[in-house]
Amino acid sequence: MTEADPRRARRSPVLGRRFRRLWTSSVASNAGDGVTRTLLPLLVVAGHPQPLVVAGLTAVNMLPWLLFALPAGVLADRYERRRLLLYSNVVRAAALSAAVAVFAAGTSLPVLYALAFVLGVAETVAETVAPAMLPEIVSEEHLELANGRLFAPQVILNEMAGPPLAGLLVGVGATLALATGGALYAAAAVLLLGLATARGARGARRPAHASMWQDLRAGVAFVLTRAVLTRTLAASALYGLVYSATFSMLVLLAYRSLGLRATGYGLLLTVGSLGSITGTWLAPRLARRLPTLVQAQWSLVLSGAAYVGLGLARDVVSAGAAIFCNGVFMMSWNIPVLSLRQRFAPPELQGRVMSVSRLCSWGTMPIGAALGGLLARTTSVTTVFVSLGGVLAAGAVALLAPLREGALAAERPDVPRGPRSAKDLGSSTDTPTTEGTGP
C-alpha cells in the first residue's frame, strides 16, 4: 500500500452497509416530515383560517417534546432502538392512512389536531432513538461524517423539497397528500427491517425493579454531574432560544428592511438552507483539524455575528450572505456537539442523554418565539437580531471557554462500546493523544 492510501481512507471512510440502510430510511422519513409539516397547516388554513387555530396546531404538534422527551430517552435505553425507530415510522404511516379515510368524508379540525399530536409523539421517539443508535452502527472516529450525512437530507427534504411538494399534493387533493406522507413513513419502516444493530445492542441492562422515574433520575444525574454536558446543553438551550426568537421575526425583517415579498422571502430561506447543507459537508472536515470544543465555541460566536449582520443588512446580497453563513455555522455547531455527546454517553445512557439534549434545545424555542415578538414590539425587529446575536456570541464564550479539552476525558466513563476511534475529545483524528478516545 502506498503512503497516500491511508490518507485517502481517512479522508473518505467507509461507513458501512448498516449506515447506508439507516441513511436510506432517514431519507424516506425526512421526506415524510417535509410533506406533513407543511401539509397540516395548509389543511387547517383551508377550512379554518383563524390565526389562533393555526397557531394551536403548531403548539399541539410540539407539545410531545415537552411531555415525552425524557420518557422517550428511557425507552431508547430500555428497548432495542432499531425496533423503536421502526415502530415510530409504522405509527406515523398508520395515523396518516387513518386520516385518509376520515378526510374522504370531509375535513375535520379535531382529526387534524389529533393527527398532529400523534405525529409529534412518534417524532419525539424517532428523533431521540436515531442519534442514540448511531454509535452502534459507525465507529467513533466517523461520527461527525455520519451525522453530517444524516443532517444533509434532513435540511434538503424538510426545508427545501418538502414544502413545495406538499403544496402540489394539496392542490391535487388532501387525501393524496396524506397518503403520500403515509407511504413515505411506511417505506422508512420497511428499510429498517434489514438493519441489524451492533452485537444485538438492546439499550441498557437495567435492574428488573427499576422504575421509569429511577431511570429518568439516573440519566439527568449523569448529565448534571459532568461539566462538558451541562455547559454544552446550556449553550444548546441558548442557541434554541436565539434561533426561534430571530426566525419568528425573519419574515418581518425581510418585508420591512429588505423590501421582499413572498417569493423573495422564500428564496432567502432557501439560501439559508444551502448554507446548512454546506455546513454538513464542512463540519466533519473541520472536526478532523480542530479540537471539538474550539470548533463548537467559535461556531456559536460566528453564528451570533451572522445574526448581527443579518439584522443590520439593508440589501438582499448582504442579508443572503449573512443567512448563508449562519446556516454553515449552525451545522458546524450541531454536528460536532452531537458527536461529542454520542461519544461521551455510555451505551446504556445514550437515549437519556439524547433526550435531555433535545429537551434543552427544543424546549426553549417557544420561549424564544415569545421573546422575539415582545422585544420587537418594545424596540424594533433589527434590535432582536443585533441584541440576541450579541447575547449568543457572549454566551458561547462564557459557557464553553472555561472547559479545558485535556481535562474532559476524566469525566467520560471508561465503558466498552462500539469500534473505538483514535479521536480524543481535544484532538483531531490526525493527531492521537494519550488521553482517551473521545468526549
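the 2nd protein, sequnce then structure:
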Amino acid sequence: MNETPHTLGSARTLWELVTRRAALTPDRPVLLQEDRVLTFDALRTRSERVAAGLYGMGVRPGTVVAWQLPTRIETALLSFALARLGAVQSPLIPFYRDREVGFALRESKAEFFAVPGVWRGHDHTEMARRLGARGVFEAYDALPDGDPATLPPPPAEGTSVRWIYWTSGTTSDPKGVLHTDRSLIAGGSCLAHALRLSSDDVGSMAFPYAHIAGPDYTVMLLLYGFPAVMFEHFALPDALAEYRRHGVTVAGGSTAFYSMFLAEQRRQPGVRVIPTLRLLAGGGAPKPPELYHCVVREMGVQLTHGYGMTEAPMITMGDPEDTPENLATTEGRPPAAMEIRIVDGEIRLRGEAVCQGYLDPAQTAAAFDEEGFLRTGDLGRLTGSGHLVLTGRLKDVIIRKGENISAREIEDLLTAHPAVADAAVIGLPDRARGEMVCAVLEQPPDTAPLTLSEVVSFLRAKGLSVHKLPERLEVVEALPRNDTLRKVLKYKLRERFSRPLP
C-alpha cells in the first residue's frame, strides 16, 4: 500500500507513526536547530537508543516520567523514547516554578523527572531536589543511552493513557489532562489536513515543546514528511535570521506571534520580513479581526486561526482557501471527526482528539455530559456554513500568549497581602498577548496605595510563575458586587478598564 498522510494517520501509536515515516523518507530532515539537522531515520534510531538508556535506569511501560525541558532536539528525542517504551509522560512548561511543578509531581506520582539543569538563570535541578522529586536526571545536552536490543516490544495499542498535560482551568491548582497516543495523532492529523500543507513546506516551533502543541505539531511533520525549525528561546528580531536561513514557509503559534511578526514587518514596509513565508497559523488566544486584515495586507501572507485547548488540541481551524470574512471573524470549521454541540451557548465536544478526562475522577465526571460531550466552558455559535464563532467564556480564566492562567490562584495570593482587602484578577484585550493580566484591588481604609512593582514583587516571593504576573494594576474604592451573594461583577471591571486595541 502506498502511504499517504491520511493512511499514516491511522497509525495505532506515535511510535508506529515514527517507524512508518522513517521507512518512507529516512534521509529527509524533520527537526532543524541552528546548525543541527535530525532526519526521520535518526529520530527513530536515536530515540530507540535513548529508550534503551531509560530502560536501563528502570523506566518501564507505564512508568510515569515528568519532564520540564526547553524546545530542543534532545527534548523531542526523549519524548519519543518514552513513547517507544510505552511510559506515561508528564510534560511541564519550562517556566513553571515550585507551585505548579510540585503539584504536578505529587498528583502524577512521577517516578522520574528530567530537567535541563540551570536554564535561563533558573536552577531546575535544585528546584527538583527542593521539591523532593524522585529519579531526577538532567537531559539538556546528554541523554541516556543504551543498546536497543535490550528493549521490550513497543506498545501495540494507542488507546491507553500515556500523556498527562497540565492546565490551570478555572481552579487555583492545575488539572492533569489525560491523553492517549491516538488522541494526539487525531489532533495533529486534523491540524495538518486543515492547513493544506505539503512535503515542500518548512515549519517552525517557536512555542514550548512541552505544550500540547508539541505533539500536535510533530504529528503534522510525521504525516507530511517536512521539517520544522526549533527555537529554544524565541525573540524577534533575533530569530528572523533562522527563519530566513531555513526558508520557513509556515510560522505562527498564537495571536502574540502574529503581532510580533507584523511589528517587524512594519519596520521595513514593502520588504518581506521572511521572503519564503506564505502562511501564519495558530490559535490559543482571541484574534482581533483587524489583526487578520493587517497581516494579509502588510505581510503579503495568509493567516489562519483556530480553536483548541489542552483537552482537545485541535477543535476548529481556518482553511487557507476560505473567504477573508470567515478567516477574520471565525475560528474556522471542525474536521469531520470532531462533533460540536452548542448547549445553552456553551461549546461541547466529542471526538477522538478529545482527552480521556482528568487525573481527578471528580473533575472528569463534572467535565463530560451524559452523552460523552466535553463541556468546554467556552461560549460560541455555529454559522450556517459550519464555522465556529467564539463569543465568551464561562470559565474565569485568562489566556495570555496561549497559556491558561487561573485568576483565582492570583487572587488567593493577593488577598494574603496586608494592604489588600479584596482582589479581582481579570483578562483585558491586548494585541500582543491576546489578553493581559490585570489586578484590581480594594484596599483597607487609610492604606497607602500599592504600586504594580510592589504587587509583582509580592507575588514573585510567593512563588508565582513569571507568565502569570500582572502587567496592569488598578486600585478602586470598592469592587462592584451583586445584591444577593455579593459576588464581584467582573464584567463591570472589564467594561471599565478595557481600552480599544491600538
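The domain at 5-182 is CATH 3.40.50.980 (Rossmann fold). DSSP finds 16 helices and 26 strands in the chain.
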